[in-house]
Amino acid sequence: MPAEPRAVPETFAFTCRDCGHFWEATFQVMFFTDPTDASGLTTQEYVDEEGRAMRSPLADAVCPKCGGRTVHVLEAGLAERARRAEHEPRPAHKHHLHLPHRHSGPPDGAP
């Protein structure tokens, strides 16, 4: 009889390269270990927020906005930071004129 699986939540951030949509999704990573298997190998399965099991959300990601499959995985939290950055005003940047420094004394190479 296999042991009860352990579940660990894991959040991934995604961006669609087709439409630019950002989103995050949390999956339950289920770890299964068969106690009768002498090798002690563990298998894993991901369960999405709707309870659907999948091999890997990284390989099977589909954009919820446009249905695109050109999806890039990002660091968790990055999607929200990018969304906030799009809507926050940027601080004003003052431009300064950069001129060569003048020095007193004879010009370079003068006797």
Automatic annotation (TrEMBL):
Domain of life: Bacteria
Comp. bias regions, Basic residues: 92-104
Stretches the record annotates as Disordered: 80-111
Basic and acidic residues bias: start-end ranges: 80-91
Protein name: Regulatory protein FmdB Zinc ribbon domain-containing protein
Organism, as annotated: Streptomyces hokutonensis
